[in-house]
Amino acid sequence: MNRVWWMPPNGALHGWAIDRLMWVNLTALGICLVFAHLLLAAALLRRKRHQVSSGILRWEVLPLFGFCCLYLWLAITAQRLWAANRFEGPSPAAMQVEVVGMQFQWYFRYPGPDATFGEVRPRLVDAADGNPLGLDPRDPRGADDIVTSVLVVPAGREIDLRLRALDVIHGFFIPGMRLKQNAVPGLVLHLHFTPEVEGAYPILCSQVCGSGHARMQAKLKVVSPAAYKAWSATLKHR
Ligand SMILES: [Cu+2]
């Protein structure tokens, strides 16, 4: 597929189905567009010759019925994909990572060896002091939490993201993973995906969230499980 006008290369397990659906949608609707214009031209030409219109069933009811079937089919296939991505939860073995958006930065928190996130308190948020998420030092579960500005994940493992926002609505968007979800202050929203293809993918903010919106970018690195293990061993717990 030509990358100049198509989406960036997909790296997620569910992305192939989304790309295929997108392609089928564009093709089907493109054919409809051409067909509608041909029909319009034919109707105009015919009208000049025969003043009396005829064939309502053939020219109106049948095409409309065809369009209804097409749209219904597109809606059902899209709904199935959406449900698999949003209504069905991640597997219990999925790796947990918290994503926090704030003006104008994404932070990622790993729960550490205890697999449990520590408590956070808004009044403890102090990026200058090295505590951008407001981790409570009195909570022992947070002692092994790791906060990073790069999202590093192992390829082939399902990732369960919990999205939060500290100030305004941000849009967590990874085009290469076919993922987009708003991060809303006061809500914890989950998003799960399985990265398949190793590489670096830009993470963007898709909601205009202030003057620094355009530079609110981060990076997702999909690495081999061994490289992920090595990377996480180098991190300091906060
Ligand atoms: Cu933002």
TrEMBL record:
It is found in: Membrane. The chain crosses the membrane at residues 20-45, 57-76. It is a multi-pass membrane protein. Its main location: membrane. Signal peptide: none annotated. The keyword Cell division does not apply. One of its GO terms (molecular function) is copper ion binding. PANTHER family: CYTOCHROME C OXIDASE SUBUNIT 2, CYTOCHROME C OXIDASE, SUBUNIT II. Belongs to the cytochrome c oxidase subunit 2 family. This is cytochrome-c oxidase. It comes from Acidipila rosea.
